[in-house]
Fold:
Amino acid sequence: MPVPGFSSDMVSVSVTNSSQHSPRQKAPTEFTADRGTSIALIFALVAERLSIYYEHEKWMTKAQGATLAADWLSRSKRSMSTEMRRQISDLSDQMARQIAEALSREAGLQTAHEMMESLDPHYQSEIGRSLMVECARLLDSEAEESPQSMN
Structure:
């Protein structure tokens, strides 16, 4: 299922401007340079992974996720390194599997549906907002754990 025109405007959480980092923070990595886009990509990939899983009972591969991210980025005339897209795909895979393990099939289907609907910036969803915050936390924890691999 194609994702409508991908936009980092989907991010309903507060994102900081990467040019305004405090002196204690390290210089921005690719993850933090466009944090909003990275968060939105994780969210969109989690939604897509869950939808495919519940529809076909198969998980999208990490390579498929990275390729899908490249397609979405190219539609909005953006780009991201292959390594970065792979890391985003890996994070989305982890999160999607955790959601699927934690929820019943019915609850998982509803969550996947809410996430897909939340890709529309005009759609307001408490589930979507809370999962977007989780995507941000996941991204931030990955950036803290492996800053070298994100450059």
User: Anything to note?
Assistant: Residues 102 and 108 are 9 Å apart (CA to CA).
